[in-house]
Amino acid sequence: MMNRRRAALTSTAALALAAGLPLSVLAQQKKIVLGFSQIGAESEWRTANTESIKQAAKDAGIELKFSDAQQKQENQIKAIRSFIAQKVDVIAFSPVVESGWGTVLREAKAAKIPVILTDRAVNEKDDSLWVTFMGSDFLEEGRKAGRWLVDNVKGGEVNIVELQGTVGSAPAIDRKKGFEEVIKGKPQYKIVRSQTGDFTRAKGKEVMQAFLKADPKKINVLYAHNDDMAIGAIQAIEEAGLKPGQDIKIVSIDAVKGAFEAMMAGKLNVSVECSPLLGPQLMKAVQDVVAGKTVPKRIVTEETVFPMESAAKEFPKRKY
Ligand code: AHR
């Protein structure tokens, strides 16, 4: 895949040598160009992810062409096509939804531009369309949320409302599945309502208001697929005159600073970690791919769980 770039480098190197320039000077001049299509800025997590990628590109001396898709798949496809037209060295992107990527990925492959998936997976059978996929195990995150619930909320019926992430996105699909896997066969745990809040605070609040209107007394637990929706829902719960974290236990995912603040205030019970700090790992993979090295097909981020009791101690160490 890297033949085109290597050939270009070799001929440029020959020219540079003929002109009496040392190769070290040449190496400094020829920057790797990375086209990155980001989903948007829907959450605190996403903002931290964007910062991590921009900073890591700077640190690695990689030229970053960054495009914000504003949560629209069509914009991501446009951005990828534009990266292909610009003949970037590597394309990376975080796919907003799982399906519908085959055509554009085949176009990148035909142009011999390697593609790296970050954060979210695609639902395509042909895995030769990308070099590696780096990011969290969303299924396991859902399981961790479920395990915390069954270990900590016991006795009687437990009615759960669920705020799902963006419809069709890998984290929404897998976090739901992982959570349901754990509560399956335990009839006291019931998901009584489940709706998308699109990973945003505003939508999380709006949907929680609707849940509360429908069943104010019936909700024991909120399971939110991310912290932003949980934080939005906390406002709705307080406005309804209830105590988040007590009257309604709250389980969410990401472990962003906002969630730690809510945990320290006793309003959120647990946050399952999902790290957005993928920048350094991504730049390393980009450099390896350009250098023709083999990179693992799947790079999984190591993560843990933060219950509210650990929040005050952990908060000063948090980087996002
Ligand atoms: O894909 C990761 C998810 O996307 C994060 O959990 C969420 O906050 C974000 O918007």
TrEMBL record:
Pfam short name (any one): Peripla_BP_4
Molecular function as annotated in GO: carbohydrate binding
Chief site of localization: other
Keyword set, alphabetical order: Signal
Gene Ontology cellular component annotations, sorted alphabetically: cell envelope
Keyword Signal part of the UniProt annotation: yes
All copies of domain Periplasmic binding protein, residue ranges: 35-293
Localization of this protein: Cell envelope
Signal peptide positions on this chain: 1-27
InterPro entries: Peripla_BP_I, SBP_2_dom, TAT_signal
Family (UniProt): Belongs to the bacterial solute-binding protein 2 family.
PANTHER family tied to this protein: D-ALLOSE-BINDING PERIPLASMIC PROTEIN-RELATED (PTHR46847), GALACTOFURANOSE-BINDING PROTEIN YTFQ (PTHR46847:SF3)
Protein's name in the database: ABC transporter substrate-binding protein
Source organism (scientific name): Ramlibacter monticola
